[in-house]
Design a protein that fits this description.
284 residues; mainly alpha; 82% helix
Length: 284
């Protein structure tokens, strides 16, 4: 947990520094071109400054959050972390060597989907195979739903950002009509430019955030479904081994009464020879 938190903090700091450097480079290059071209605006002014406070305080932070979530999910929601290669065979080998009773202690430190579900099933199953089976699949479903709720933040950002852009469009149109009203219906082009810029730039940022966010959300949703299917397949094999392991002690105890019966009948037959076969003598 501490390592993950440290990586997230380093990533956020690095992302903030990267954005600051990009903005500085963009302003310097655009400023140089603007000084040569006269009254032309820089790219930073066209796509950031012209959007107003809606871009500065809402859409830009949303874009940074979307990038952070995409990177964080790409590092945590992957096969190496959730369904490692060979995890099913490893758990089956542990069951064969040490039994299912010692399995929770041996795989408790693993955080993948299969190990977490198996530990919960054995710990709360009480030796009942059917109950352990239900607990195992319930645990897998809960983990898959938890991952789905995590990536819903990307879906939320993707759905909200166009609405914010539309809100900026309405704000820009209101400013535009206010300028028209205050100038007596004959405004200058420069007076209309600010309202139009706010309307268009906020819409641009809203779509720029929404399209990648929704696409990335769909990709992660498909990945979660794939990982859940693989985990379910491995869980089926583990359940079969657990069932066989639960049957082994019962089959080992069944032949034990047979030697005891044989040992008891041996001395009786030696001490009382032909005790039952003498009954036909009464036929005289």
């Amino acid at each position: 947990m501490r390592k993950a938190f440290l990586l997230k903090t380093i990533f956020l700091i690095g992302l903030a520094l990267l954005v600051a450097v990009l903005i500085a480079v963009l302003r310097s290059r655009s400023g140089a071109s603007a000084s040569a071209a006269g009254q032309n605006q820089t790219l930073f002014e066209q796509y950031v400054v012209a959007g107003g406070w809606i871009v500065w305080f809402i859409l830009l932070p949303m874009s940074l959050i979307a990038v952070y979530l995409a990177v964080e999910y790409s590092l945590s929601i992957r096969q190496q972390e959730l369904v490692p290669a060979g995890i099913g065979e490893e758990i089956i080998e542990q069951i064969q060597r040490f039994g299912s009773g010692q399995l929770p202690a041996r795989v408790a430190e693993q955080n993948d989907l299969v190990s977490t579900a198996v530990v919960r099933a054995i710990s709360k199953g009480g030796g009942d195979w059917f109950r352990m089976r239900n607990l195992l699949f319930e645990s897998l479903q809960e983990q898959a739903l938890g991952l789905g709720r995590r990536i819903e933040w990307l879906n939320l950002i993707g759905n909200v950002s166009p609405m914010v852009g539309l809100f900026g469009t309405i704000v820009g149109m209101i400013e535009l009509f206010n300028v028209i009203a205050t100038t007596g219906g004959q405004p200058q082009a420069t007076q209309l430019a600010h309202g139009i810029s706010v309307a268009l730039v906020t819409t641009f940022w809203g779509l720029l955030i929404a399209i990648p966010a929704i696409a990335i959300h769909g990709a992660f949703a498909n990945r979660i479904e794939t990982l859940f299917s693989e985990a379910t397949e491995k869980a089926e094999n583990i359940l079969t081994e657990m069932r066989d392991g639960l049957k082994k002690p019962i089959t080992a105890q069944q032949p034990r009464p047979k030697p005891a019966i044989r040992e008891a009948t041996g001395p009786q037959a030696a001490g009382k020879p032909q005790a039952q076969t003498n009954k036909p003598v009464t036929l005289r």
